[in-house]
Every structure is written in structure tokens, then in C-alpha cells.
Design a protein that fits this description.
Elements: E1 4-11, H1 14-23, E2 30-37, E3 55-62, H2 66-69, H3 72-88, E4 93-95, E5 99-102, E6 105-117, E7 120-131, H4 148-152, H5 158-177, H6 181-191, E8 199-204, E9 207-216, E10 222-226, E11 229-233, E12 238-240
Parallel strand pairs: 1-2
Antiparallel strand pairs: 2-3, 3-7, 4-5, 5-6, 6-7, 8-9, 8-12, 9-10, 10-11
Length: 241
């Protein structure tokens, strides 16, 4: 994978800019990097605080086969955790479906958004945000979030961090494209070991369900043990208790 990096000082959302590039025919491997986002977002439209210089805000354009697209969020979680470890020495964990943690605090988030054409998925934008400085999150989430420099107690080389994360993403994407999805799933399960076997709850319409997270299956769905048996959770908001 050859990355083509487009740098911006300030954008509303790197995912939106990358999606626009993709819709105009940008090559796979196009990357949008911004110093700040005014409307950064996570899953379910949540705001991702993105002040200037406080984090790494990146979105990539990929054009995967349909079966590969299903596992892109899982692969991205593994690759960002691996990239952070390569650049900093920290060993982050992952939490389904799209979070990267150090201990009990969130360090990075991932947002994969598919673009559709008349024949199906035309591209997937995989965006990730990594908290580099404590200022990357507002006071009201400080108890739930952390940052690289806060964990390390020293400055972080942002260029090295970006390069390591893109290298990791290219490697894990190649695994998916070349039929080695099992290695991605195995790596995800290893990094999720501290998060699994924990109680979770989620809503399906007006019904609230609860169980114990056991694993993910080969499609990336979360497997939850409930009183009624094993349930596959494929979307929605899962709350870890």
C-alpha cells in the first residue's frame, strides 16, 4: 500500500474530506490528516473533541472487496493498537467495536464509513483519532479518557506515530485482502482479553438486553452469553458494565 497524504490545518471532519476525495475517484491509499477538526465525530454521531495539535486526526480511503469490508473496523482496531505500541512502547487493548484503551481509559477511536454505488460498496473511509495531549478531551470526559503523553510522561513523535499506524493498517488490510482474516481476528482477541468475559447491555428497539461478552465470531460480531443462549450483536450501542 502506497499512502498519498493530504494535509490540512483545520477541517470539519477528516472522514468527510476523505469521503469527498473517494467520491471524486481518489485512489485507494489516499489519506487525510488534519491538525484540528471542528466537527469530528465518533459512532452514533457523538462528538470527538479535536483541538489543534492535541491529537492525531486521520482518515484513509480504502476500496475493499465486500467480504473484507465487514472486518475493517476490527482490523483497524488491531492496527492502531499495534501502531501505538510500535511508536510508544505502550501496549493498548481493544474494546468492541471500535475503541482502543490503555487500562480503563480510552486512548483512540475508530470510525469506518462505507460509500455506496449502484453495484454496492464503492469505498470505505477508515478514520481514527488518537489523543496525544490531555487537551484532546474536555474535562467532562477526563475520567474516561487518556492520552499518549499523559501515559508516557514525555513528548510523542507525531510523525513516527502516524507512520507506525499507517504501516499497521496497511499490513492488516493486506491480511484481509489476501485471505488471512484469521490472523486479524486472533490478534484482536488477544488484545481484547481484558475486556471480554465482562457484563454488557444493549438496546434492540425498546428492549434492553444483558449478558456476558464472550468473543467475536469470524464476521466480527460480538458474541454475548445471555439467559436465552448465545446472541450475536452486530450493531447498536453496547454498554460495558
Amino acid at each position: 500500500m502506497e499512502w498519498q497524504i493530504h494535509r490540512y490545518q483545520d477541517v470539519a471532519s477528516t472522514n468527510d474530506v476523505a469521503a469527498q476525495l473517494a467520491e471524486r475517484g481518489a485512489d485507494e491509499g489516499s489519506v487525510v490528516v488534519a491538525e484540528a477538526q471542528s466537527a469530528g465525530r465518533g459512532r452514533h454521531g457523538r462528538t470527538w473533541s479535536s483541538p489543534a495539535g492535541a491529537g492525531l486526526y486521520v482518515s484513509t480511503v480504502l476500496r475493499p472487496r465486500p467480504e473484507v469490508a465487514l472486518l475493517l473496523t476490527i482490523a483497524a482496531g488491531v492496527s492502531i493498537a499495534e501502531g501505538i505500541q510500535a511508536a510508544s512502547g505502550l501496549s493498548p487493548s481493544v474494546k468492541w467495536p471500535n475503541d482502543v484503551f490503555v487500562g480503563a481509559r480510552k486512548l483512540a477511536g475508530i470510525l469506518a464509513e462505507a460509500g455506496m454505488s449502484a453495484t454496492g460498496v464503492s469505498h470505505v473511509v477508515v478514520g481514527f483519532g488518537i489523543n496525544v495531549l490531555p487537551a484532546a478531551f474536555p474535562p467532562d470526559v477526563a475520567s474516561r479518557a487518556t492520552s499518549l503523553e499523559g501515559e508516557l510522561g514525555r513528548p510523542v513523535d507525531r510523525g513516527l506515530l502516524l507512520s507506525a499506524c499507517l504501516d499497521g493498517l496497511a499490513s492488516r488490510y493486506a491480511d484481509l485482502q489476501e485471505g488471512r482474516a484469521a490472523s486479524v481476528l486472533e490478534a484482536w482477541r488477544a488484545r481484547a482479553a481484558t475486556m471480554l468475559r465482562r457484563p454488557v447491555e444493549w438496546d434492540r428497539g425498546d428492549i434492553r438486553s444483558r449478558g456476558v461478552a464472550e468473543n467475536i465470531d469470524d464476521t466480527g460480531a460480538l458474541l454475548v452469553r445471555t439467559d436465552a443462549g448465545l446472541v450475536r450483536v452486530i450493531s447498536g450501542e453496547v454498554r460495558w458494565l
